[in-house]
Amino acid sequence: MDDFLAQFRNKFIEDALDLLHQLESDLLELETNPKSKDHIEAVFRVMHTLKGSAGMYGFGYIEEYTHHLETLYDLIRINKLLLSGEILDLTFQSVDHLQNLLKDDELAQENNQYKHKWLMEQVSEQMNREVSEVLSEEVLISDEEETDEQGVATYYIKFIVSEGLLLRGIKLPNIFSELAELGQYELVDSGTNEEEDEIWGIYLATDQGKDAIEDAFMFVMDECSIHQVSPFNLFEKEIFLENSEHFQTENTPPNERLTILEAVEKSYQSQGEDASLFEEEPQEGLKDAVIATEEAVPLEEVLINAPEGIEKPSVEEAVTPDMTKDENIRKLQEVLEENQNLINLNLDKQAASRISVDAKKLDILMYLVTELVSVQSQFESGMNAEDMSTIEEVYHQITKLTRQFRDNALEMRLVPVYDVVVRFKRLIRDLSKHLGKEVEFITQGMETELDKNTIDKLAEPLMHIIRNCLDHGIEPAEERQRKNKPEKGLIKLTAFHSGNYVFIQVQDDGAGINPEIIRNKAIEKGLIQASDKLSEKEIYELIFQPGFSTANTITEVSGRGVGMDVVKKKIMEIRGEVEVNSEIDLGTSFTIKLHQTIAILDTMLVQSEDMHCLVPIADIQTCMFLPANEIEARNHTNTLMYNNELIPFVNLREQFHLKGTNPEEVRVIILHKQGEKFALVVDKIIGNHQAVLKPLGKLFRHEKIITSASRLGDGGLAFMLDINALNQAIGQKAS
Amino acid sequence: MNDITNQVEDTYLSFLVNDELYAVNVGKALEVHERQVITRVPNAPEYLKGIISFRGELVPVIETRLKLGLPERDDSDAFVIIVLELSTDEDRLIIGAIVDRVKDVIIIPRENIKPVPKMKSSFNAQFLQGIAQYNQEFLMLLNVDKVFSEEEISILSDSLDLVKE
User: What ipTM does the predicted assembly reach?
Assistant: First the structure.
């Protein structure tokens, strides 16, 4: 029973975290545009929703606090209070506090208790500043309810057709039939917002008042805003249609808009009045409409591939009878594509333990499963047959299917980098405030996809790098002025694909890294000798050394330079590499190179005695044979000649203290990692292996070079060699 | 409902190690494996015989004889692996224990379990949770959670220097 309750509570926590995430991005929007009604409304809604569900699941303090904030935002919403920077700061702190409350709902921790009390007082104080006069100049559209002598007024309803709506399975036709009952209405297409949600504008003349409209939009209140535009019936004025662009916010040319308007109107005349159509499933409605315009087949094909719920917004658009066939298809495809994007974007809003998957990928999975079932029955009949040819064919099909299953599964795990960016926006905002530096944060290529695990583990090191850019990279405003740079600093986060890798780059336009300073510091710290000759690249590498710090003053923000070595370690844990480039006074860039997926790896299977090991193909430069005595003769230095270069080598046999002796001829694998070359000596190279890696677990954590293993065909296991750790082990032996 | 829980609590899997009878609670045992290939892990302590793949995960295998301070088996001797689920402070852990032979599944009522008498010091008697008599034979009931948690501590102290960061 407790488990049952706990399950619901966890679900609430997950949802609440989603909501707070959402809230954070709304707040960031509000910061740039504090008068945005939509976002104020959104904040209010989040508070309202949180309050309701917190109460249900027994999070009393959250309920209390959100109730308080809700009241505050209600005042702002109705223009009794101006949204000040102070309030925004307070709300940001509230987000943090609410997150703490989710973990500590009893206020068991003293600082949470204190914080709760303090924040509550702060919010109350803000509420007392309530301004009495309505800020009429600030408001474009008045909220006062006025009507003409018949009690009719015209309202403008801005309706955002968001992905949430589609996924919730809201039936738009039902809403419109309710609107039709209220009075006369017109639908205008007013474009898309920055999230690429479609925005519909609806003019409605009714004598029922605003409450009745709100009732009609009850289930989609979060997605729409209702304002009175005139205290009379606008549709009676002929100038309305001519001037309709006046009421709209988007810049679509008026004639185009009118076509849509007319088209929609016509479609409702021809089909909308058939009430039964609206009672049916929307998809049915669409099919009917499609048949009516005589292109049932192609459209249905598109629909089959569409994720559930996407057809709905298409209803009104697809049914326009005056559109040509091609236009109609294109329109529908556009809608589908757009919704595809929405679903992709939706990924980032999910809590860490859940993942939303593109419906297309699920379709492929289903297809693969049906294939597998049929192959299985072929296999069965093949077993009864005399000759082996059927079995052989089945084998090839299974091989192909396995590969397809693998690709499908890997694709499902891919998540856009976008996922982590919201967190950074907030971090940069808080830090730049804290440090008194103005910084602009731009992102590029955030739709680049990475394995979910990689993304989760990437957040921390990336955050550290960004923090360093802000703290050490970007100079204070006065200094920037002196250098003829814009006062506002710039941090750019870029993600892109190249070959089998995904690159993530953080660039700043700050002071850059002075190699001389790094060098002197490293000598001072005893990391290098004054006589050592290092290339610029090697010098930059020094910042990743443990215990290295260049900031002259230790700041609260990036601490004592314990950071960068941890950054490198974390990135190496996800099998990535990191590189620094810098120019004095122009800026610094950190480039992280990552594998797109780490779940399955292409490796080479090698063997020494009875031990099987795996080497990532990506790290192998070349392989060669050498007589064992040649290697043994070089044992005193552990280096060998390769391409006129002396490179260190490590013998698997010695590294793992294996019994037995080298065979007459050994295999030498030349590895290339982080710009360093070294060789691995093994008895045998067996071949390619697609490794599904599993961790060895904590019982074996003393072993640094092998941390995971993969199952072989014979039931045995092969150890994955951590090439970085192996390289380091060589270094340790040498010193 | 309660009867069944009691029954599980009182049900034991008995097995032979060095010709003596031991038992673990069936609630702890997930599977018994014969003829499983154990892959040796280099540089591991002696009682860690290696790893096996169990339900897609890697599971460490421990030689029960060495853990208990008994003489080591000959390489040619047959063995089975009992896969055990342990509850430690941190989380669920799965290990494989190498024993000579699995014998039976039996019910031992709680009142039949007696405290452990004094035993020879080379035998690790602290891993026993009690002694039970069953069909004129004595069974030593293993406290599997403890066998393993001891494990943890020794490994932890070995690698503490490396982990310190």
Answer: 0.77
